[in-house]
Design a protein that fits this description.
- By secondary structure, the protein is of the alpha/beta class.
- The protein has 3 domains: 82 residues, Arc Repressor Mutant, subunit A, CATH 1.10.10.10; 104 residues, Periplasmic binding protein-like II (D-Maltodextrin-Binding Protein, domain 2, 3-Layer(aba) Sandwich), CATH 3.40.190.10; 91 residues, 3-Layer(aba) Sandwich (D-Maltodextrin-Binding Protein, domain 2), CATH 3.40.190.10.
- 41% of the residues lie in helices and 21% in strands.
- α8 links the parallel β9 and β10.
- α1 packs across α3 and α1 packs across α4.
- The chain starts with a helix and ends in a 6-residue tail after the last helix.
């Protein structure tokens, strides 16, 4: 079976477009079409539905059946190449959102590297949806995300469930431990859109007329603005505790709070066989980390 034909088919499945598949593979559209036709001829069946005027590709029933076979075929090929080029070291590729990588996992990575000298790790920071796509393509072995998407070849497992809290400059004249969202001035908010559930909660309590003072998609910037005594932000407790270790901030519980933030581990149903042992070792370190970390403690 031709490697290029399999790669072309998988790219078409992922993009649902011949032109986008061609772009992803750095090939011409005619070349991708030729590879697909070669594969269909070899299998003696049609894999995609051909209708004039349709811009979106749809698979035939046989095409749907062949998707998992093609993905396993590519996975086995990668494993074969890894075996041919193997040395005493193995590797593990991890994809994480910025907030998990920066505020939760540094100690996990440190302990893993200290205790597993034979495993090299490659850590990538991306948005949740990008991590799903990297995992589907076997460009990473495991992902850690804060949003769920339904993919039949991805296993989703919740690993952290943490409350959201408010952080602000300490107020010695009013050392309160909690605050109701109705008492907050939305014009002083440093806003991060943590999830659709958080956004819904936020829209309920803060009208569109009260725009946040700042809106970031990178939570790392929040701490730099906490010198202003009026500013506040809602963040996961792990981030708040991390901030408190490097800056004197106040952490307040929210009355009528937003939903907890749940972090998920995602893995492929058909992982690269040579990475399975390293993934199992990571799981053991993750369990120890969850049992010992103080990041989620009030």
């Amino acid at each position: 079976m031709n490697l290029h034909a399999i790669q072309a088919f998988v790219a078409i499945v992922e993009t649902r477009s011949l032109s986008k598949a061609a772009e992803a593979l750095y090939l011409s559209q005619s070349t991708v079409s030729h590879h697909l036709k070669m594969l269909e001829d070899e299998l003696n069946t049609s894999l995609i539905v051909r209708k004039k005027g349709n811009r979106t590709i749809h698979l035939t029933p046989k095409g749907e059946e062949f998707v998992s076979i093609a993905e396993r075929w590519l996975s086995l090929l990668k494993d074969t190449h890894a075996l041919q080029n193997s040395d005493p070291h193995t590797s593990l590729s991890i994809g994480c959102t910025d907030s998990i990588n920066t505020y939760i996992f540094p100690h996990l990575y440190k302990n893993f590297l200290n205790q597993e000298p034979h495993i090299d790790i490659h850590v990538r920071t991306h948005h949740s949806l990008e991590i799903y796509n990297l995992l589907l393509n076997h460009e990473i072995d495991v992902g850690f995300v804060i949003t769920t998407f339904a993919y039949k070849n991805i296993i989703i497992e919740p690993i952290f469930d943490e409350k959201m809290v408010l952080i602000c400059e300490p107020n010695e004249d009013n050392p309160q431990k909690s605050v109701h969202p109705s008492k907050l001035d939305g014009k002083n908010e440093i806003f991060v859109d943590w999830s659709p559930e958080f956004h819904a909660w936020h829209d309920f309590w803060f009208s569109s007329s009260k725009r946040p003072r700042a809106n970031f998609n990178n939570p790392s910037l929040i701490l730099t603005l906490m010198d202003n005594s009026n500013y506040w932000s809602v963040v996961p407790i792990s981030m708040a505790n991390s901030f408190k270790k490097i800056k004197n901030i106040q952490i307040l519980d929210l009355l009528d709070p937003p939903p907890n933030r749940i972090s998920y581990k995602i893995t492929h149903k058909h992982p690269i066989p040579s990475r399975v042992e390293s993934m199992n070792i990571l799981d053991k370190h993750l369990k120890v980390f969850k049992d010992t970390t103080d990041l989620f403690i009030d």
